Amino acid sequence: MSDGKKMTSSRRHHLKSLILAIAAGWIEQEKKDLVVAKAAYIAENCPAPELSGDQAALMEFCKKLHQAIDKVDEARYDAEAKVKKTDAEIEDLKLKVVDLAGVKKPALKKVRMSADAMLKALLGGQHKVTMDLRSNLKQVKKEVKEETVDAGDWRKNVEGKADRKKMFETS
How far, in Å, CA of 54 to CA of 40, rounded? Predict the structure, then answer.
């Protein structure tokens, strides 16, 4: 395939089905091997009980069997308790690691939202006050003072300039 030839879809489908068939065969073989191994383990570790004998011998055998079951249950319970304890320790250590590393706060996204929209989102239908502060402002018209500049005699406007000088001196 490295020389540029592409595989046709029918060929690819055929190869895929072959691989799946081989894998299915392997799975079936593993199941059979598992059954055989289980039977061999049971035959080795669990010999068939001897049930021949009188009732007293059978009662004694049942008592021994119950004692063995109790020992196995105690061991299983101890193992489960140990696992739970270590799981709790692991969770505690994970929390300590997070506390030591500190929680990284994600960068906040810039949201363009008016104050009215923000209050509406937070309060829902209870929002009645408008926060459009610009609409509450008074309209102020700027007064434009025009100073007439006389190119002629400067002595005519001396009193007006003197008042301005006094204003700076008193403050």
Answer: 30
Which amino acid does the sequence have at 101? A
Residues 46, 51, 54: CA angle, nearest 5 degrees: 145
Reference 50, options 60, 42, 40, 41; nearest CA is 60
User: Count H helices, E strands: the chain?
Assistant: 5, 0
Closest C-alpha among 135, 145, 92, 141 to residue 114: 135
Q: How buried is 165 (Cβ within 10 angstroms: 0-12 exposed, 13-18 middle, 19+ buried)? A: exposed
Tokens standing for residue 159? 């009193």
Question: Mean pLDDT, the chain, as a whole number?
Answer: 82
Kindly report, residue by residue over 101-150, the tens digit of the pLDDT: 776 777 888 878 777 777 777 777 665 666 666 777 777 777 766 555 55
